[in-house]
Amino acid sequence: MKTMYVCNDTITGIFSAVYDAWKTKKSEDECGIAIQGMLERELFCEYCRTEESEKKAQAVENLIKKHLGRRVYWDLYHAALSEDREKGDAILGTMLAARRIPDSRRIMEHLSHPKVEKVFKLSRNVGGEAHSYKGFLRFRELVNGVLYSEITPRNQVLTCLAPHFADRLPLENWMIYDKTHRMFAVHEAGKKWILVLNEEPEQSFAAQISERELEYARLWKSFCRTIAIESRTNPRCQLGHLPLRYRGDMLEMSDVL
Amino acid sequence: MRIQESMSMYEKLNILTDAAKYDVACTSSGTARKGDGTGMGSCEQSGICHSFSADGRCISLLKILFTNECIYDCKYCINRRSNDVVRTSFTPDEVCTLTMEFYRRNYIEGLFLSSGILISPDYTMELIYASLYKLRKECNFQGYIHVKAIPGANQELIQQVGFLADRMSVNLELPTAESLRLLAPHKTRKNILTPMRLVQNRMTENKEELAVYRSAPRFVPAGQSTQMIIGATPETDYQIIQVAESLYQRFELKRVFYSAFVHVNEDKALPKRTDEGPPLLREHRLYQADWLLRYYHFQAAELLSEENPNFNVMLDPKCNWALKHLEQFPVEINRADYKLLLRVPGLGYKSAVRIVKARRLGVLDFSDLKKMGVVLKRAMYFITCSGKMMYPTKLEEDYITRNLLDVKEKLPEEIRNMGYRQLSLFDDVRFAGSFTGKAGGAV
Ligand code: SF4
Predict the structure, then answer these.
(1) Which residues does chain A have within 8 Å of residue B29's beta carbon, measured at their own beta carbons?
(2) Where would you tag: which of A89, A188, B284, B310 has the fewest CB atoms within 10 A of its CB?
(3) ipTM (interface pTM)
């Protein structure tokens, strides 16, 4: 009977499940990973709750980096942030498949393997969304000088965004709130960023917009309007590049200041 | 000339954005730089788009003019001396503050600073230098900066600016010296090519400096670009891509941008205004040809000729070339060398690389090609896999042309969505009595 390891929808959770499955030395057909909350029960499967721990996750991270290399780690890590419910299975399947080929580091070239193809697609999708948010995310300055942003991503992209902004805005206090997954990335000027899970923002954030902020918001919106060439107006082209789902959190696309 | 003194920041930004919008380039690519922790900013190699304006163009940089005052009178330009428009200028402080405040809110990737010519080229270049100096040295700004070199400005000054910028460009404005004389009477070809050459030479020297001292200051790391206006003057596509080719070869430019002429002024030296709008399809064909020059090892003289000097409205330049060279086809996917693969319609340079890699591991057939992103609908007339064609087809110009035209070309949305204009013959210079479209610009 196939054993499904059930874990939380976090990197630590998924990697812990990989750890448990890996240890049993079972083959791909005999084990899998399911995510708590996205579970679809199958017949002839035994479900087994993974005890998650940083230690297990770290061991798996090291294992991947050592045997599959950093680039494969990048793909597996991004796949683990995906909204797809079969991601855990794809990650485990890819790792098991890597074991069977002569050069495990080249596993991502084996796109004819369905699990590898899946990881490739998920990673590309998550990487794409993270890249989009690097551009589309907007900070608003609160009265206390903190830069505050809210996003609504499909995948858990915060850990991809935070290093980017930490590098870019090292001397600022900033906070990004992921409304979909209810988590924060928080950065204090001159320090390392941290991830805060299962928190709601204070109601009052929106009310704390500074005067100066309104002024810049006005300048930006006017800039975006003016820079377009009328005789080339083309809303459908604009829509193709900037899908509606991003617009809700973008200043220049909303009517409020 | 109207100069308003006490103007709000809001009004100034409006005017100086409006005056800058005809500049085509807004890309922030070509430099990868981590922040150093002391200021603000970083750069990503591929560039980042921050928004898209109503015309579907990417907004990546704060694209503004330093001033829209100008001592010159280029006929296609909204800012020309003889136009009665409200004039204003930023101060270096204002440019700096706007850039920093926009950047920290993640509105932009950096600054694109161009300018009209205030008092003299030197005077203007000094103001641009002062803005960039403040931004880089006082605010420690490490984001992207694209700046225009002003033709006729002091060489030393242009060099100094180049050490503060990521990309520099000098606008070629128009494809030929005659057109320049006609429409930009204060500019000369020589004046434009001199700073271009200077930037090129300095970049070469800088590469050597960097090879010796890794921490030597970097000069225009994202390279040099230029742009020219298409459709304001009677050059053929052949002339235009020959100019582009020589710019790539002789000046090592990173990019040549083409900008469909947009009517902003009435002037008898300009083509008559029509209802057609800017010649976007023509612009698109030129960009396609430009790709062929840069990534597909084509030469201008292979694509067009004196006898046949303009691109086909109906077919992209590569299909057009292939149809005229059927003797080179079909190409065997499992054997043909990389450069020949690049010439197959429907086969991009990425797929060509994938094919070369994958065929080492085994024999490829049509289903493999499909997975690699080859557009078989177009490629199938020109290739064989292990000696077989996908379907029995005739290797005959008329037959293939008809079939290719049945497969709708995937035009970019900005052209496709223009509906009636999609295949309008009026976009093709051969059919247009007068030239459509027009563009303005600065510098
Ligand atoms: S193109 Fe430049 S130099 Fe010519 S009028 Fe316009 S701003 Fe002045």
Answers:
(1) none
(2) A188
(3) 0.91
